[in-house]
Write a structure and sequence with these properties.
- It is built from 6 helices and 4 strands; from the N terminus they run ααββααββαα.
- It has a two-stranded antiparallel ribbon.
- By secondary structure, it is mainly alpha-helical.
Length: 201
């Protein structure tokens, strides 16, 4: 196994920079990102029961790694050292990955504690990865990443990365549901699938 690069930056309550700042680090290219963070993503994927590629794709899109919050999750799972708005900042990337896995496994893999998705079903990204995401589901007036409201129809994917990304897009994780009206997106999670294709993960 490839040795972990020195990417686990220790942050303190006074040393982090929030995404709203011009000093927030820029997102790297796909290859650099995968080289630096694949081992962390692989660990998370194993704990959740999905692929490393899905985790990398979401983390790349969210780009919360500079505050050790790889999926840019809200809430207060774990022991954050501070916040950027409602988003926790963790001392190390290991801490952030642990919090990410706890949040996903609590609210995004089915069961009574799972959040409802935009179609009124319990979010279950693991089941989507294993068994697929049902096509033809409809939802109206759904917020997109580019601040539009659109009607959406789910796409049928028979399992794997695309289906998992669609389930993640249908969930409440991202307020814009990983869609852009300006790009003609008609199903949740399509923006993640574009990143997945472009990165060739």
């Amino acid at each position: 196994m490839e040795q972990k690069l020195n990417t686990n930056t220790n942050l303190t309550a006074s040393s982090y920079v929030c995404p709203s700042s011009s000093k927030y680090p820029s997102k790297p290219d796909y290859d650099t990102f995968a080289r630096k963070y694949s081992e962390y993503a692989s660990s998370a994927a194993e704990q959740i029961g999905i692929s490393t590629a899905v985790v990398l794709t979401q983390w790349y899109q969210e780009w919360g790694i500079p505050i050790n919050n790889p999926g840019f999750q809200g809430g207060s799972i774990g022991e954050p050292i501070g916040k950027c708005g409602s988003f926790p900042v963790y001392a190390t990337l290991d801490d952030g990955v642990e919090a990410f896995c706890k949040q996903i496994n609590k609210r995004y893999v089915g069961g009574k504690n799972a959040f409802d998705d935009i179609f009124g079903n319990k979010t279950d990204i693991r089941a989507a990865y294993e068994d697929g995401f049902k096509g033809g589901l409809k939802a109206s007036n759904i917020q997109t990443d580019d601040n539009k409201k659109i009607n959406v129809v789910s796409e049928r994917f028979v399992g794997g990365n695309y289906a998992c990304n669609e389930a993640l897009g249908a969930s409440p994780w991202n307020a814009g549901h990983y869609m852009r009206a300006s790009k003609g997106d008609t199903y949740p999670g399509r923006r993640l699938n574009v990143v997945l294709n472009d990165a060739d993960w």
